[in-house]
TrEMBL record:
Residues 468-477 have a biased composition (Low complexity). InterPro entries: Gal_Oxase/kelch_b-propeller (IPR011043), Kelch-typ_b-propeller (IPR015915). The keyword Signal applies. The chain crosses the membrane at residues 480-506. Residues 1-31 form the signal peptide. Keywords: Kelch repeat, Membrane, Repeat, Signal, Transmembrane, Transmembrane helix. Residues 457-477, 570-603 are annotated as: Disordered. This is Kelch repeat protein.
Length: 603
């Protein structure tokens, strides 16, 4: 008899029991009263939710919550899906044990079905957030749309808001893709990007019973034109997390960059039992960061410095702050590993990745137990709010009151209370010291274009002890410098004019009778080229650029030169496959040669 993995067996058993209607893995026994925001003394655990800070309110959407009913934890269920949107007032300081959590009325048209682990992004310009896909309840009476729908929640500025279905300007596009879960998502001011993910009967009705479809490529949704499009790289990616960084830009449109971390890279086909064999799939580790350019839609990579977070891991949390020196610090914590022999292993560690140095710094572990499936967001000027997390079970009470934790970035301390009056953000001292010691100049950049983007000569090495250029005292200092510089510059200019006049009338006639030799040297030209293409001081060896790279003449009206596309986290790819962008799925089970050679789209 052929051996069946534990994940396959559980999937078959779950499917059989659900098909027979024997019991429900989600939802409570009929007659039990539950709440999407149970009282703190009844709260057990929350997970799979998504959070957004818009204005003065933290919004919590989707996911599952378990709670005590009577004197016992929930019976007949791991958890119940959350049907409401919640909000917390962030204009005031609060304690996690007592902070009130508002339940927003969900009896309105356009509210998405209860879902876990959807793609999720915010639009701060109009005070909204979006939900795409996610895993719906396993309950027999689950509600799912016939075709994919994109949901939008517009906040009202007072902790409430309204749901609606966002109809794209190219609606037929929705018939060509599946709704997915475990996708990485992030958005610029204009466009949202959804990377990878997987689909099954629990995300999309049309996938088919017992099948799992693995997404390849990515989707882009322009929030202004309401247009979907497919992006073309063929990587699969499940359980990764993305973060938009506005400070750094590849091009002139100032779209920022998107960092993609973690996750697994399963094969494009999986067996018919809806199982992925995580013991054999590759993964993205944290010593090599994927960088996505939203403008050119190209992938780049950069190796990191310092000890790195262990992996593989998925469903961890990312949140960050801009630094006053022009950089960006990102907190990473928690997550799970699906690798045997310890399946569903949870991490309890925390790390900070600092840009532009791409240097990892270890932060204190979470004071609560290991967790994954949580979500977080920067709040105020310096704190990160974490919501929920699985342990992996649902019946073990969460040590974090109401599932809420706070991390103060500058002091690198964990708390269960939020300080609405906390001061401005400054990098932790250990990160300040790293830059102050000149370590940025020792970074080995993967390509010259990445050095241009993250550490051009105009950026220099951040000096945490320098005065704030926006402060009044700093402005006065610059004014004095400008006065002195102007006086000296004027004198130098006058002397230069006198020298030019003497040369023109007395020396130039003699030189015209002679054949002037060419000036400059190959060494000087090479040094100039090196500065032109790397924008670094000429004493940095060009050999630090990627192997085989050579300077090339670029027209003055061109932007950045297009280099090779890089597979996320795997290093440079020798070529880019031609053809139109693709976002597709490989059907599970046997395939014909035509299906194997092409991409299958849903009809």
């Amino acid at each position: 008899m052929t051996a069946i993995s534990s994940s396959c067996r559980s999937g078959l058993i779950r499917a059989a029991l659900l098909g027979l209607g024997v019991f429900q893995l989600h939802g409570l026994v009929e007659g039990q009263e539950i709440s999407d925001s149970p009282p703190p003394d009844k709260f057990v655990r929350r997970g799979f939710a998504r959070v957004a800070l818009i204005g003065d309110y933290l919004y919590i959407e989707g996911g599952e919550v378990s709670q005590q009913v009577g004197d016992q934890n929930q019976q007949g269920s791991r958890s119940n899906y959350m049907n409401s949107t919640l909000s917390i007032d962030m204009s005031k300081s609060w304690d996690a044990k007592t902070v009130p959590i508002r339940i927003i009325d969900n009896k309105i048209s356009g509210k998405p079905p209860a879902r876990s682990r959807p793609a999720f992004w915010t639009n701060q310009q109009d005070g909204s957030f979006y939900v795409w896909g996610g895993m719906v309840s396993y309950r027999k009476d689950r509600v799912m749309p016939k075709f994919p729908e994109l949901y939008k929640f517009v906040t009202d500025g007072s902790g409430g808001g309204k749901w609606s279905i966002e109809t794209p300007s190219n609606p037929d596009f929705l018939r060509t893709v599946y709704l997915t879960e475990l996708a990485a998502s992030a958005a610029t001011d204009e466009t949202a990007f959804i990377f990878g993910g997987l689909a099954g009967e629990w995300t999309d009705l049309t996938v088919g019973w017992g099948r799992t479809e693995i997404a390849t490529g990515a989707l882009a949704f322009n929030m202004k034109t309401k247009t979907f499009e497919k992006l073309g790289y063929e990587e699969t990616l499940v359980g990764a997390v993305a973060e938009h960084i506005p400070q750094f830009n590849f091009g002139t449109k100032k779209q920022g960059v998107i960092l993609i971390m973690g996750g697994y890279i399963p094969e494009k086909r999986v067996d018919g039992n809806s199982a992925i064999d995580y013991s054999s799939v590759s993964s993205h580790l944290f010593d090599n960061i994927t960088i996505f350019d939203p403008e050119t839609r190209q992938m780049h990579y950069q190796t990191t410095t310092g000890p790195t977070p262990p992996g593989p891991r998925r469903e961890f949390c990312l949140a960050g702050f801009a630094t006053k020196e022009g950089g960006y610090d990102i907190l990473l914590f928690g997550g799970e590993s699906k690798r045997e022999p310890e399946l569903d292993f949870r991490y309890e560690d925390a790390w900070i990745l600092s840009l532009p140095g791409f240097v990892w710094t270890k932060a204190p572990n979470m004071p609560t137990q290991r967790r994954a499936d949580h979500h977080c967001t920067p709040a105020g000027k310096r704190q990160v709010i974490s919501v929920g997390g699985t342990a992996p079970g649902w019946r073990e009470p969460d040590p974090a009151p109401q599932g809420l934790m706070v991390f103060d970035m500058p002091s690198m301390t964990w708390r269960f209370n939020y300080d609405a009056d906390a001061g401005d953000y400054e990098s932790p001292q250990v990160i300040k010291d790293w830059y102050k010691n000149g370590s940025l100049s020792k970074v080995k950049w993967s390509t010259p274009i990445l050095q241009q983007v993250f550490a051009p000569d105009s950026f220099g090495i951040p000096n945490p002890d320098s005065p704030d250029p926006n402060s009044q005292s700093s402005g006065q200092g610059h004014s004095i410098g400008a006065i002195v510089g102007g006086v000296l510059g004027g004198l130098a200019g006058l002397l230069a004019l006198i020298a030019v006049g003497i040369w023109y009338f007395f020396y130039r006639p003699l030189k015209q009778k002679q054949k002037l030799p060419q000036t400059g040297s190959q060494e000087a030209l090479a040094a100039g080229d090196k500065y032109l293409y790397t924008r670094t001081p000429v004493n940095i060896p060009l050999q630090e650029a990627e192997a085989g790279w050579k300077p090339a003449e670029v027209a003055s009206n061109h932007g950045y030169a297009e280099l090779s596309v890089f597979s996320p986290g795997l290093g440079p790819s020798p070529s880019v496959s031609p053809g139109p962008p693709q976002y597709s799925f490989r059907p599970a089970g046997p395939q014909s040669p035509m299906e194997m050679d092409g991409y299958s789209e849903r009809r």
